[in-house]
Amino acid sequence: MIGTDKSWFLRGGLFAKYAISLVGLVVFVLAVNGAIEVWISYSGTKATLTDAMGEKADATARRIEQSVSELERQISWVTRASAVTLEQHRADYAQLLNQVPAINQLSLLSGSGREQLRLSRLTISIDSGADFSRDVRFTETLDKAASYSPAYFRQQRPLMAISV
Predict the structure, then answer these.
(1) What is the C-alpha separation between 90 and 120, in angstroms, rounded?
(2) pLDDT of 72-99, one tens digit each?
């Protein structure tokens, strides 16, 4: 009968009312404390993961920067070689393509921006005459020692043009 009749609470003594109020207050305080602990733990874990991911990103950026500077050094070695004829340039470029798998294609441009030689792993093009004089890579390279195009993806592989 107690389960269906709620008048026992009103007729009960003062002690029962205080006991129920105190239990309710303790449950409320414990729930708030648990929620605060969960939030603090979440914030700490999130900060730790963010810091770790930032360190990994910095390390990866340094490795990419080292790889790109190594590629630039190797490309500049070939461009500054003592080759005079197109055949000598072609031989140097073929050697570089064989030694460095990260390089897919090399092009030799004249001072006016016309393509004289293009060598890739599959094709050789001599005196194509393609005009790169207005290409940003060509104009920036005239102002600086080297220029880099933004990275792009082809068949889920990252690619980038380095002009020296």
Answers:
(1) 10
(2) 888 777 776 666 777 777 788 788 888 8
Cβ 115 vs Cβ 128: under 8 Å: yes
Question: Where do we find the tokens 């050789």?
Answer: 124
- The secondary structure of residue 123, as a DSSP letter, is -
**Closest C-alpha among 121, 115, 102, 91 to residue 162:** 102
Whether pTM exceeds 0.70: no
The residue whose two tokens read 């050094």 is: 73
How many Å from the N-terminal Cα to the C-terminal Cα in the chain? 93
Interatomic CA distance for residues 90 and 106, integer angstroms: 9
How far is Cα 18 from Cα 74, in angstroms, rounded to an integer?
83
